[in-house]
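Please decode residue identities from the backbone states below.
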């Protein structure tokens, strides 16, 4: 028996699929089910989500390592990713939204915003170190200088997805899932990252950056004139 349907207004496709699966499980033993078409593709995409998230984080790490020519700095930025994700999870949980493919899309968007906010702070902290400032002083200055751009970008991003979070009518379930996840992530990615990104940078730099400092100092001592 083939059953074709769609989610009710205000409900996501993930909720509709969960309801159908719950109904089929109550049928007599020996009766099974399988998804086809778009529903099958959605289930397959959901099962691949952990691998895709891991690959996305790995690509971010490689790009940051190439950008800064350093391994410790990308680690300090990646440590901020859970700070943005936790806001999306809390927002969706408070509204009772399911963990469907639309929420996962919003969560991936939030990870990008979180990384961007951390990069702004770390970039200026690194520049301060290169000018000869102390580690803590350079990090605090970077956080102060980039606080306003982070707030402005987050406000624009948050108000941009607000209509998705509060919309009603046909297809509202998918829009609510994306909007709520992104909006919750924007809040935590703004305030928590501003506080913890400088801390992570200082801790990682002190723990893993000293070796590079010693190597640089050793190179300068061996070749003080800069001749190759």
């Amino acid at each position: 028996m083939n059953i074709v349907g769609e989610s009710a207004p205000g409900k996501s496709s993930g909720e509709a699929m969960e309801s159908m699966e719950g109904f089929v499980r109550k049928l007599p033993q020996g009766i099974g089910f399988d998804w086809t078409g778009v529903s099958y593709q959605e289930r397959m995409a959901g099962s691949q989500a952990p691998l895709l998230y891991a690959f996305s984080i790995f690509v971010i790490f490689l790009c940051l390592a190439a950008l800064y020519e350093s391994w410790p700095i990308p680690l300090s930025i990646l440590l901020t990713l859970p700070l943005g994700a936790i806001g999306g999870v809390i927002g969706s949980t408070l509204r009772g939204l399911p963990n469907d493919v639309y929420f996962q899309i919003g969560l991936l968007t939030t990870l990008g915003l979180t990384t961007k906010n951390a990069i702004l702070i770390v970039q200026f902290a690194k520049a301060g170190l290169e000018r000869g400032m102390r580690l803590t002083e350079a990090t605090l200055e970077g956080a102060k200088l980039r606080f306003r751009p982070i707030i402005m970008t987050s406000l624009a991003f948050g108000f941009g997805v607000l209509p998705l979070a509060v919309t009603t009518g046909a297809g509202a379930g998918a829009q609510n899932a994306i909007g709520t996840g992104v909006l919750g992530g924007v809040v935590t990615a703004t305030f928590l990252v501003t506080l913890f990104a400088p801390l992570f940078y200082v801790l990682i730099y002190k723990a893993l950056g000293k070796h590079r400092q010693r190597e640089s100092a050793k190179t300068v001592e061996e070749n003080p004139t800069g001749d190759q």
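Observation: The first helix runs from residue 13 to 25.
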